[in-house]
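Morning!

As promised:
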Amino acid sequence: MRPANTRVQTDAAEVAVTTADFAAAVRHFLAQQPRQLPSRFLYDPLGSALFDAICQLPWYRVTAGETRLLTQHGGAILSHLHPLARIVELGAGNGDKLAAMLSSALPRTTPLDLDLIDISPAALATASRALSAFDQVRVFAHESSYEAGLHRLGSEPAAAGRTLMLFLGSNIGNYDPDGAAAFLKQAREALRPGDALLLGTDLVKPETDLLMAYDDPLGVTAAFNRNLLVRIKRELGGDFDLDGFTHRAVWNGRASRVEMHLLSTRAQRVRIAHADLDIAFGEGEHIWTESSYKFVPETVAARLSEAGFTPREQWLDREAQFSLTLAEA
Ligand code: AVJ
């Protein structure tokens, strides 16, 4: 049972992904050359569950590495931010990492607001349930894109204490360099002097490790990727033959990113009724579904500085080759 001093609130104001948005994006991006689909659509309820499974795979070391860092240094990070009034997490997912961080800190005597921003209502429900078990917290769940979440945050009246923003899991790696710079600027503008951003970034490592992380031997990442086609079939009346598409992960060293693609294994036509789309795929033609940029610690700090932050401290997990950077607004 939830203690009386906690409550969960959910905004109903915004639905992050409507069927109309999805149809318009599929129509637009599948017609591009190269064909593509934005990675935010990977997170329907089944996609979110498959992503949670990925986080437990021994080959995907991002989550374990970051959780180690948050457990070891979470208490210190939070005590740097005294008096902390609020934690905002963009892309909170199932809430496990924030829970790990809070567990490692001293028991709280002052109230703390947790604002969870995520595109997946299923993930938000799980996270709200887990986090509302902590003492002295109020949980606010916002079903929203990062951009809309940041915009709302920036237009709110100033909070009494300091705000810590979390952008973990190397979620920033989904943006291309210009998009990441724009995101960091927007994050900086949503914060006030004395607030801080904690940024989790996966680091460049040997190609074999990266390919095992994004094309795992159990096929969970393949299922996560191919589920995008399942979602299009169900929500948009697509007639994809799933057997005609396979998962591909490639390391693009020049751009410093892992790319996920869906590869058409033969020439085939696909009709997506509710997007009013007819496509002829050639054998070997790809749909590019995700980029995961990989970083080196020094450039993370440099990008934060360019966006108007002051980098304060950086922690590295050697085993996973993952970094956390704390930067002040
Ligand atoms: C949640 C976007 C950070 O890019 O590593 C995991 C998603 N894709 N396996 C990542 C993902 C394939 C993940 N992010």
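The pocket of N,N,N-trimethyl-histidine is lined by residues 54, 62, 169-171, 173-174, 214, 221, 290, 292 (CB under 6 Å).

Hope this helps with the figure draft.
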